[in-house]
Amino acid sequence: MNTAFLLLAQYNGVTVIPVETVCRDFFSHLTPGKFIQKVSVGEIAIPMVRIEGSQKAAKGVHLMDLAKWIDLRRDAARKECEQLTGVKF
Fold it and tell me: Cys bridge to 57: 37, 38, 52, 65, which one at CB 3.0-4.6 A?
């Protein structure tokens, strides 16, 4: 299954998903401010889009970047599981 396709369906074709929505759906343990801070210092490796140059401009994550991030996290989880169990996924 293609992660980007599933996200397109989940977000009704929206290409840039607002930070608040990304936090709600994938980082519920973080506030949007803390998420932005972690992205800014490289603790969360996902590109953040500013709609314009202003510091106060709306921020979001491009759907394709979110899909890639999810896929990378999945790959890491699969690798860890294979190392622990010896079962290939």
Answer: 52
* pLDDT digits 0-9 by tens, 17-68: 999 999 999 999 999 999 999 999 999 999 999 988 887 889 999 999 999 9
Cβ–Cβ under 8 Å, residues 36 and 29:
no
Question: If you write DSSP's letter for every residue of 17-59 in order, what string do you get?
Answer: EEHHHHHHHH-TTS-HHHHHHHHHTTSS----EESSSSTTS-E
- At a CB cut-off of 8 Å and minimum separation 6, what does 66 contact? 7, 17, 22, 26, 46
Rounded CA-CA distance 58/22 in Å is 13
Token pair belonging to 38: 């972690």
pTM of the model: 0.89
